[in-house]
Amino acid sequence: MADKMDNNTDDVNNSGKCVFCDIAAGKIDNDKVIYEDENLVVFPDRRPASMHHYLVVTKEHIRDAKHLNGSHIQIVEKMVNTGKQVLQNNGGNVDDIRMGFHWPPFHSVSHLHLHVISPQSQMSFLPRGIFKVNSPWFVTPVWVLARLKRAAEGQN
Fold this sequence. Notes:
By secondary structure, this protein is α+β, with helices and mostly antiparallel strands. The chain has one domain: HIT-like (HIT family, subunit A). It is 31% helix and 17% strand. Strands 1-2-3-5-4-6 form a 6-stranded antiparallel beta sheet. α3 (73-89) runs antiparallel to α5.
């Protein structure tokens, strides 16, 4: 298990490049980035599920939420807090929010990214299914953090 979890840089798209790595490095779509710090970038989803739909993306290439381990608790917490702050700064309602990660193999980009969607109450039928909370394909940050904390306790 440790071998697979440590191998976070093995998955790139068919062209040999990771589009989210390119965005995080400022190589493409730099004008779309609305927040950046030393660990994260945030930009709008290209197919928004509601009025506000942002992706919080790690600068480090981590394949997906399934490849996280106990050492990643802080970055996931930071992703959640950053997503809420960006949403608020852009006029979104943090009381009507849906946040989560697509669980493999149900993601289109193999690079860790948190969906921040608001207002969730205005999502249409199809997006409600795509971003269905705690389904086999979409999990909340609370669920991911609980999994990581269990993993961290097991490492002690």
